[in-house]
């Protein structure tokens, strides 16, 4: 598990302790821990504001952008979604992006004076679609290192099977508080009561607790940069604001959540065992044939998710989703372990449920 120093510091006062001292103390007295600096090679990459977007005069798959980076530069991109006003990261000629050195390039008579970068090209994600758009305000020409928050210390903790309580920022902060005799800052929770209720039937004893609320009027869009940054630092890909906040809660509190597109659900939500031969097309785009070992979340027509492991593609949140069913549950660890191993699937959620999250 990865844990940024600044996130831990929200719950325990770490002043006076170096990152190395914290890692050494955890290793000697609790769990093996290492620390490194979250960094990528972004020399010559700066923040820019898209001022104008035009079609390429000869190639319809390209856009020609005027981008303010202090001066105004012309950049050609394949991203068809780019628009005026977007904040972007621009690799200027001479910039080093990973192992590449950026130079001016001619695209059928139009010179590109740089490159608009995706999260993948910046080394933040293994795969990504389109240019990374930044909604937050920065001065044109601000170095990418400052925009993205590189230089953060990140701990990597090897959690043993008996220490599921450490599989969260809060859990690790409590451990550090106890080991170093430091005051722990309890998180400030808020209670919301204006959610819609749904009919839920728990038909399997290995689901000890299941809660679901309906949230309507949702606008699915990219998450703010601060949230995406924390997911990236923990090795989690940013998807959209709905999926990202479920992952954020899981990382901070240790409780996996799952969001369904409510309009894809028919009838009551049922927690049951799969029937032999039933199938699910997972969020990874892989179809899995199930057995009676597998605990599933279903409706009256189909399987929505493999309980505690992974969601189904059909009921996943998309850009057009307007209403979300948010799930929080507790499953017996042995059931999730058997289910995940029988299908050869391990996720951040199953990793935590297998190790006994707080009920």
Automatic annotation (TrEMBL):
Entry keyword Isomerase: no
Keywords (A to Z) from UniProt: Ligase, RNA-binding, tRNA-binding
Record-linked PROSITE patterns: TRBD
Lineage: Bacteria, Pseudomonadati, Aquificota, Aquificia, Aquificales
Domain TRNA-binding positions: 39-145
One GO BP annotation of this record: phenylalanyl-tRNA aminoacylation
UniProt cross-references to PANTHER family, sorted A to Z: PHENYLALANINE--TRNA LIGASE BETA SUBUNIT, PHENYLALANYL-TRNA SYNTHETASE BETA CHAIN AND LEUCINE-RICH REPEAT-CONTAINING PROTEIN 47
InterPro entries recorded: B3/B4_tRNA-bd (IPR005146), NA-bd_OB-fold (IPR012340), Phe-tRNA-ligase_IIc_bsu (IPR045060), Phe-tRNA-ligase_IIc_bsu_bact (IPR004532), Phe-tRNA_synthase-like_B3/B4 (IPR020825), tRNA-bd_dom (IPR002547), tRNA_bind_bactPheRS (IPR033714)
Protein name: Phenylalanine--tRNA ligase subunit beta
Keyword RNA-binding: yes
GO molecular function: ATP binding; magnesium ion binding; phenylalanine-tRNA ligase activity; tRNA binding
Domain of life: Bacteria
UniProt-listed Enzyme Commission number(s): 6.1.1.20
A GO-annotated cellular component: phenylalanine-tRNA ligase complex
SUPFAM superfamilies, per database record: Nucleic acid-binding proteins, PheT/TilS domain
């Amino acid at each position: 598990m990865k844990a940024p120093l600044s996130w831990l510091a929200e719950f325990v006062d770490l002043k006076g302790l170096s990152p190395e001292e914290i890692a050494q103390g955890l290793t000697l007295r609790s769990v093996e821990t290492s620390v490194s600096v979250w960094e990528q090679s972004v020399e010559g990459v700066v923040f820019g504001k898209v001022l104008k977007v035009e079609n390429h005069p000869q190639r319809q798959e390209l856009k020609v952008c005027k981008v303010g980076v202090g001066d105004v530069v012309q950049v050609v991109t394949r991203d068809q979604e780019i628009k005026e006003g977007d904040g972007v990261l621009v690799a200027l000629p001479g910039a080093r992006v990973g192992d590449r050195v950026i130079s001016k390039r001619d695209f059928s008579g139009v010179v590109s004076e740089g490159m608009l970068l995706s999260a993948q090209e910046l080394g933040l994600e293994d795969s990504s679609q389109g240019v990374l758009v930044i909604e937050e305000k920065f001065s044109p020409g601000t170095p990418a290192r400052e925009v993205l928050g590189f230089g953060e210390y990140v701990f990597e903790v090897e959690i043993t099977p008996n220490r599921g309580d450490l599989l969260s920022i809060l859990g690790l902060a409590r451990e550090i508080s106890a080991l170093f005799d430091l005051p722990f800052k309890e998180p400030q929770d808020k209670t919301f009561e204006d959610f819609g209720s749904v009919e839920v039937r728990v038909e399997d004893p290995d689901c000890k607790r299941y809660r679901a609320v309906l949230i309507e009027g949702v606008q699915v869009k990219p998450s703010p940069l601060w949230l995406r940054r924390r997911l990236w630092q923990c090795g989690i890909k940013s998807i959209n604001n709905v999926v990202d906040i479920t992952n954020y809660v899981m990382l901070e509190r240790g409780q996996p959540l799952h969001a369904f597109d409510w309009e894809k659900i028919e009838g009551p939500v049922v927690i049951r065992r799969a029937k032999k031969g039933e199938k699910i097309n997972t969020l990874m785009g892989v179809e899995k044939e199930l057995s009676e070992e597998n605990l599933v979340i279903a409706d009256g027509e189909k399987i929505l998710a493999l309980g505690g492991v992974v969601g189904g593609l059909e009921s996943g949140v998309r850009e057009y989703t307007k209403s979300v069913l948010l799930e929080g549950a507790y499953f017996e660890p042995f059931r999730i372990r058997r289910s995940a191993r029988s299908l050869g699937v391990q996720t951040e959620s199953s990793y935590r449920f297998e190790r006994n999250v707080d009920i």
